[in-house]
Amino acid sequence: MAAEYDLVILGGGTGGYVAAIRASQLGLKTAIVENDKLGGTCLHRGCIPSKAMLRSAEVFSLAKRSGEFGIETNQVSLQMEKVQERKRKIVDQLYHGVQQLIQKGNIDVYYGTGTILGPSIFSPLPGTISVELKDDNEMLIPKNLIIATGSSPRTLPGLNIDGETVLTSEDALEISDLPKSILIIGGGAIGIEWASMLADFGVEVTVLEYANHILPSEDQDISRELTKALKKKGVQIITGAKVLSETMEMENEEATIKVEKNEEVKSFSAEKILVSVGREANISQIGLQNTDIRLQNHYIQVNEMMQTQNSHIYAIGDVVGGLQLAHVAAHEGILAVEHMAGLNPDPIRYEHVPKCVYSHPEVASVGLTERGALDQGLQIKIGKFPFLANGKALVFGDTTGFVKIIADQETNDLLGIHMIGPNVTDLISEAGLARVLDATPWEVGTMIHPHPSLSETIGEAALAVDHSAIHI
User: Fold this and answer.
1) Pairing with 406, which of 95, 221, 278, 438 sits 20 to 30 Å away (CA)?
2) CATH of 155-277, one of 3.40.630.30, 3.40.228.10, 3.40.50.620, 3.50.50.60
3) Can you give the pTM of this predicted structure?
4) Which residues fall within 8 angstroms of residue 311, CB to CB, at 6 or more apart?
């Protein structure tokens, strides 16, 4: 059988299903091909389940400090089976919501493996999708195609991911019995979130990062502050560490690997190893060879409207590289759909995209780091304000961190806003809007922020750029 559509989307993750909903709103007959569950990695094996577990870890840590708030409790204990049960309930609720949205939009879903075909009897252009179903095969003939197949955890040569001793972040989400100790290879966002969570759960954590500081893409002041906070939790952080993965050995139910640092080789051992060294695009078996699509560094090349070399075929999300974030994939999907519908949308300005790390303390940023601004030859001025001087942070009992604002000395433009501390993954939206509206530090600082609120730190940091902060 063959079915015709205005749009077929290969992959029903965040980018894919959001694109489908927008296409439905614009009157496009739309289908999704998904080989697992709608919602993809973010909903089922990434963003949502990991944040649910991080919240449990944060509450557990806070409960052990309840005496500081004048609340005496009996001995606090952790029940991982209930942590997992809560995580599953949240995922199931959101999954049900996505299914309802797809149904509301009259979007067809084909659960199977989709392959892109070249020109054939079905179409003179590449892009027909052959869907391998359980008991059948379906041909979908789209006017437009979006590739949104996402990514998978990258591994290291010589480290066999077995789901028992050597884990990916997806494997770790299913942990029912916490290990006594764990080595986390990779100090990026995912690795640091797991380090924070597991340390709060009481696991001995060691982070091995190849770069000279954790969160290499973040501002170095943020990295230093987070390093201090994690070490206070008991996390051992080894930077400049090259893992010699082929040397892993097992002894007494512990895995041992060798690490080269400063031309010296040291051994590190733990019950578990979590490999968190980035993600790679899921593009190897989807039929790209049947198209004119080009790859760069194993990612699909697209223009600013998300089009590939075949102009009716678009690609979004992790398969195009760049910022591999769910909110980016969603907006790329909307952009692609609006472009194919002739709405002439503005391209995404990736320098305006907020980035978040949901560790404790949280990290959030938008725009250039201090080093990035200096590398561009810009003359800069900086304002910082600590949460220690914020009334609401004191009330919260969480005063770690600061807000840092970088501005252009000549134009007064906001270049970057960087935060570490309580709830900054929510506070960053104000900073992101300031960037979009091309606000100046003076405009942000003179906006009246409610008192007491954590958001006051943004206003004070903005005023501090020109040495006008009130409370420091």
Assistant:
1) 278
2) 3.50.50.60
3) 0.95
4) none
